[in-house]
Structure formats: structure tokens, C-alpha cells
Amino acid sequence: MEYLDFELPIKELEDQLTKCVAIGHESEIDVTETCQQIEKKLAATKKDIYKNLTPWQRVQLSRHPNRPYTLDYINAICGDTFLELHGDRNVKDDKAMIGGLGKIGDQSYMFIGQQKGKNTKTRQYRNFGMANPEGYRKALRLMKSAEKFGIPVVTLIDTPGAYPGLEAEERGQGEAIARNILEMTRLKVPIITVIIGEGASGGALGIGVGDTVLMLENSWYSVISPENCSSILWRSWEHKEKAAEALKLTATDAMKIKVIDEIINEPVGGAHRDHENTFIAVRDAIVANYDKLKNLSQEDLVSSRMEKYSKMGEFKG
Amino acid sequence: MAWFKRKEKGIQTSTEEKRDTPKGLWYKSPTGKIVDSEELAKNFYVSPEDGYHVRIGSKEYFEILFDEGKFKELDKNLSSKDPLKFEDSKKYTDRLKDAKEKTGLKDAVRSAVGKSKGKELVIACMDFKFIGGSMGSVVGEKIARAADYSLKNNIPFMIISKSGGARMMEAALSLMQLAKTSAKLAQLADAGIPYISLCTDPTTGGTTASFAMLGDINIAEPGALIGFAGPRVVRDTTGKDLPEGFQTSEFLLEHGFLDFISHRKELKNKINLYIDLIQNQPIRA
């Protein structure tokens, strides 16, 4: 387990606890009480740290190397029913964008999401979760296929942005994202979107137009990453913490400005410390929201989705 | 010996008596060609010698595209709020105030309905000089309402993009304008109303990830910068040198993302020709 700066008090207590237990095993001293005290303190410290996170700390958590990624969720939620589908039928198969069919209970879903890697090799293989146009086109192909067969779509968002590369521009990164956004506004099956980590800009929204948009407690969603915002507005990366504050990118803020519909709470200590319960919370949220959407007619579904996005924004006059 | 001899040394004219050429009388294009301002305006703000398309705003485009420059402006009074209380080196509210004073505009887009070659057309045109043509809630709402006007009155729709992208000071709300405008365009498409997207210099970021690339035809002015990620970002990320002409209109045409490039002088003719053709109507002279 890796620890972020502000998590170090937890590491200290956890180390103490391990030592305490070890002493108990090795000697005949009764350490039960000491261990209990440390455990109590650990729980209190965790609660204290994770309750008062700054926006920047949440951004750090959203990128935590031990945090589960898209395929971890799908594999945990669908088990061996998950069937991954590949390719945009045009250029290639984008490894940063994955998709496929899987079951939760008796219901099939089309899962789509950006995928990050866990070590240097797989991070490169997944292009750090930054999809190219073919990734967005693959996503759209799968959504259209789901629409054809009446299968609901679940998108899992975790991306630092769409890939800003030369070939990406040649193949129309902007157009690919734009097309997805437009088609998603009128897709005739329910779309449930979950932001599980980083939700950066058009790269996120390219698979993020949903009837219901959910956000994990320690994820972020905005028009730009705090680092890039800082480098544009302050002309240096040094102000990323201030930028994170200014962008109002946390789940609570997104909820306030009505950009998302629901926050999924993470187990105390964050998703990276308790994968199992995070998977359960996400699965339950998907099922509960699908239950709300499944009886709507296609017309009602599409018109209320359009209505929802038409209302977004604040202005006067 | 010189045939002319200066009687007194140095420049004798006092500062007050010096005469400057009034500002704005001449325009210098990037290739160094100098044009008389009036000439430039008469030539659709295109430098006659090198064909350079000078950046212009909604005022000039409306003059060029609407008959006799006559139009009715839509949703004139919408203006930005500061929903996130955004502050970097400057408060967003101050930025808005400055931009309004400097440009005389309310925000980065104006929409209008008028006749072009005798037939009604709705145009939403962005103004780059208002905070880089950035798209926030007002831009999204005005474009959505203009599209609504097209939809209700069955009038073809055109957006002239000129924008650096989403407006950072409205963060996630500005991102949502991509979805809002695209949802409206989906409705126009379902109703079979033609939508023309004109990309002008520059059309980057969020605009290309929404309405700028969603036209029934996407067209551009020559030499415009059009792209999702700006050239500097692409260079910094990939560490590669960019090919010449990368992300220009011509580059996009070559890669299949534009239907054609139009000189500003032919713009009015070409868009109306397209409308007549696609609507199967007699071609207007």
C-alpha cells in the first residue's frame, strides 16, 4: 500500500499496530488493551483525515495508485459474465477505452470506460487512460449496439483527459468527442454514468452524458485538471492547490451546481483501502438507478435527458 | 560637396507639432502587406494581396451575411453570473466587467435572425475578443436558444465558431455547455433543419468537441487554426515537431473533417447555395 503525505499519520498507527500484534505473538505480555487503544486511535485518525480533505487532497486520492480502475469494477461486479468487446471498426482497438457486455443479476449492461494501468508497462499500454478518437468511436459503436438491442449503458469515467497527440488531431479528436456527446443526448436506452476517479473535460464528457451521473466521493470532475488550470491562469504549476479550490471540482461541489445527480460514499479511508465495499456500493447504485429508469418510455427517457442538460448553466437576463 | 545643406542641426519640430497617422488607418497582415483600412473593410476584411483573413467579430459577420446588414438580435441581454465565485490572479466578475467595457459586448456570442439572399437564416456568431471567445453558461444558453428559434420557425441554422474553448472560470458548468448545445443540435437534426458550422481562426478546445464539428456541413475560412488540443499542448505532450500547416483549415480538409474551405468573399453565396441544394429548392441568384 502506498501512502500520500497526508495519510502518513495512518501509516504510523498501522505500523504501531502491526508491531503491537507481533509483540503479543512473540512474548507472553498481554497487549490486547494496547492494541485496542491503537485501533481506536487509528479509526479516529482515519475519520478525522478523510472527513476534512481539501479539494487537492481529493484529487490526489482520485489518482491513488491502489485505487481500483474500470476493469476492476467490472470484473468484480459482473464476475465471469463479462465479455469484453474490441475495436472501432475503422482504425484500431484503443486500449485506453474498454467496453463489453456483462450481467448484474439477470440484467445485461453495456459497460464502457477509460482504463488506466497499474505499473509502468501497463500504464503505457493503456496510454494513462487517455483515449484517442478511435477510443471514443469504439465507445459509440458499443452504445449504438446496446441501443439496437435495448441494453442499458453504464459508463465508468477515469481519465486525465482525451489524448492530445498528433495522430489524435489528424483523426479528429474533437469530432469524435462531439459526435459521442450528440449521440448520447438522444440514445434510446438508459445511460448511467459513474465517475470513479478523474473526470477531466471533454475526454470525460465524451462518454459522460447520462440520465444519471454518479460520482464517487473521492473523484473529481471539471473542465480542466488543476495543474493545467494553474499553468494557464497563473502561468506555473505551483498553484494547483489553489486551482483545485477555485475549480469547485469535488463531488460535493458538482452536486451543488447540479452537474451530477448523486454521490456514492466510499468506505472510510477511501476506495483504495477497501475495494470490496467500494464495488458493492457502485453495483448497488447502478442497480438502484436502473430500476428508476427502466420503466420510462424511450421518448420520456430521451426528452428528460435533453431537458436535464438544457437546464445546466447559470446566467442572468 | 552636398547640393543641399541643412541650415540647422537636428529635428526642430516640437513634440506638440508632430503629426501621427491616426490609429487604425492602415492594417498590416502577418506577411507584412500593408492595407488601407477602408480597402480592407470593402474586401470583406481580407488582405487583398496575400488573402489573409483578418479576425473579425459578430458585427462584421452579420454585415457580410445578412442582406443590407439588417437583422434582429436574439436574447441580447443574457449575461454571465459568477456561480463558482472564481478567482485566480483576478476575480472573474472583474474580468467580465473589463471585457464588457473593452468590447461593448455582453458575452462571447451574439445570435440573430435576418434575411440572407432573401431567405431567413439564424446565425450565432462568437466574438473572440470577449475573454478569448470562451464558452460559458451564456454562450451555451444563447446558442441553445438560437437553435430553438430555428427549430420553432423552421429556419436553417449557422454557428460561426471563434473560440479558445471552454471558459475555465465556470469550470464544470462550462463543460456542460458542450452537452447542452449538442442536445439542441440533435433536435435540429431530428427535425431535418440544416445546420452549418463555420470554423474561423481560431476554433479550438470545447468548441471542436461540440457544435463546431457537428454541422451537416463543416466549413472553414482559409488558414484558420482548428483543433481539439492546441499546438503547444500537442508539442509538449508528444515531444514531436509538428508538421507544417498542422491544424490549419487545409490540414482538416485533407484529413476529412471539413466539407470545403470558403473565401470570406464567397461565404454568403456558398452557404445559401448549400441551403437551396439540401432543401431541394430553386437556387437563388
UniProtKB/TrEMBL annotation, chain A:
<dbReference type="GO" id="GO:2001295">
    <property type="term" value="P:malonyl-CoA biosynthetic process"/>
</dbReference>
<protein>
    <recommendedName>
        <fullName>Acetyl-coenzyme A carboxylase carboxyl transferase subunit alpha</fullName>
        <ecNumber>2.1.3.15</ecNumber>
    </recommendedName>
</protein>
<dbReference type="InterPro" id="IPR001095">
    <property type="entry name" value="Acetyl_CoA_COase_a_su"/>
</dbReference>
<keyword id="KW-0443">Lipid metabolism</keyword>
<feature type="domain" description="CoA carboxyltransferase C-terminal">
    <location>
        <begin position="37"/>
        <end position="292"/>
    </location>
</feature>
<keyword id="KW-0275">Fatty acid biosynthesis</keyword>
<dbReference type="GO" id="GO:0016743">
    <property type="term" value="F:carboxyl- or carbamoyltransferase activity"/>
</dbReference>
<dbReference type="GO" id="GO:0003989">
    <property type="term" value="F:acetyl-CoA carboxylase activity"/>
</dbReference>
<dbReference type="GO" id="GO:0006633">
    <property type="term" value="P:fatty acid biosynthetic process"/>
</dbReference>
<dbReference type="InterPro" id="IPR029045">
    <property type="entry name" value="ClpP/crotonase-like_dom_sf"/>
</dbReference>
<comment type="pathway">
    <text>Lipid metabolism; malonyl-CoA biosynthesis; malonyl-CoA from acetyl-CoA: step 1/1.</text>
</comment>
<keyword id="KW-0547">Nucleotide-binding</keyword>
<keyword id="KW-0808">Transferase</keyword>
<keyword id="KW-0276">Fatty acid metabolism</keyword>
<dbReference type="GO" id="GO:0009317">
    <property type="term" value="C:acetyl-CoA carboxylase complex"/>
</dbReference>
<keyword id="KW-0963">Cytoplasm</keyword>
<dbReference type="GO" id="GO:0005524">
    <property type="term" value="F:ATP binding"/>
</dbReference>
<comment type="subunit">
    <text>Acetyl-CoA carboxylase is a heterohexamer composed of biotin carboxyl carrier protein (AccB), biotin carboxylase (AccC) and two subunits each of ACCase subunit alpha (AccA) and ACCase subunit beta (AccD).</text>
</comment>
<dbReference type="InterPro" id="IPR011763">
    <property type="entry name" value="COA_CT_C"/>
</dbReference>
<keyword id="KW-0067">ATP-binding</keyword>
<keyword id="KW-0444">Lipid biosynthesis</keyword>
<comment type="function">
    <text>Component of the acetyl coenzyme A carboxylase (ACC) complex. First, biotin carboxylase catalyzes the carboxylation of biotin on its carrier protein (BCCP) and then the CO(2) group is transferred by the carboxyltransferase to acetyl-CoA to form malonyl-CoA.</text>
</comment>
From TrEMBL, chain B:
<dbReference type="GO" id="GO:0016743">
    <property type="term" value="F:carboxyl- or carbamoyltransferase activity"/>
</dbReference>
<dbReference type="Pfam" id="PF01039">
    <property type="entry name" value="Carboxyl_trans"/>
</dbReference>
<keyword id="KW-0275">Fatty acid biosynthesis</keyword>
<dbReference type="InterPro" id="IPR034733">
    <property type="entry name" value="AcCoA_carboxyl_beta"/>
</dbReference>
<feature type="region of interest" description="Disordered">
    <location>
        <begin position="1"/>
        <end position="23"/>
    </location>
</feature>
<keyword id="KW-0963">Cytoplasm</keyword>
<comment type="subunit">
    <text>Acetyl-CoA carboxylase is a heterohexamer composed of biotin carboxyl carrier protein (AccB), biotin carboxylase (AccC) and two subunits each of ACCase subunit alpha (AccA) and ACCase subunit beta (AccD).</text>
</comment>
<dbReference type="InterPro" id="IPR029045">
    <property type="entry name" value="ClpP/crotonase-like_dom_sf"/>
</dbReference>
<protein>
    <recommendedName>
        <fullName>Acetyl-coenzyme A carboxylase carboxyl transferase subunit beta</fullName>
        <ecNumber>2.1.3.15</ecNumber>
    </recommendedName>
</protein>
<keyword id="KW-0067">ATP-binding</keyword>
<keyword id="KW-0443">Lipid metabolism</keyword>
<keyword id="KW-0276">Fatty acid metabolism</keyword>
<dbReference type="GO" id="GO:0009317">
    <property type="term" value="C:acetyl-CoA carboxylase complex"/>
</dbReference>
<feature type="domain" description="CoA carboxyltransferase N-terminal">
    <location>
        <begin position="24"/>
        <end position="285"/>
    </location>
</feature>
<dbReference type="GO" id="GO:0006633">
    <property type="term" value="P:fatty acid biosynthetic process"/>
</dbReference>
<keyword id="KW-0444">Lipid biosynthesis</keyword>
<comment type="similarity">
    <text>Belongs to the AccD/PCCB family.</text>
</comment>
<keyword id="KW-0808">Transferase</keyword>
<comment type="function">
    <text>Component of the acetyl coenzyme A carboxylase (ACC) complex. Biotin carboxylase (BC) catalyzes the carboxylation of biotin on its carrier protein (BCCP) and then the CO(2) group is transferred by the transcarboxylase to acetyl-CoA to form malonyl-CoA.</text>
</comment>
<keyword id="KW-0547">Nucleotide-binding</keyword>
<comment type="pathway">
    <text>Lipid metabolism; malonyl-CoA biosynthesis; malonyl-CoA from acetyl-CoA: step 1/1.</text>
</comment>
<dbReference type="InterPro" id="IPR000438">
    <property type="entry name" value="Acetyl_CoA_COase_Trfase_b_su"/>
</dbReference>
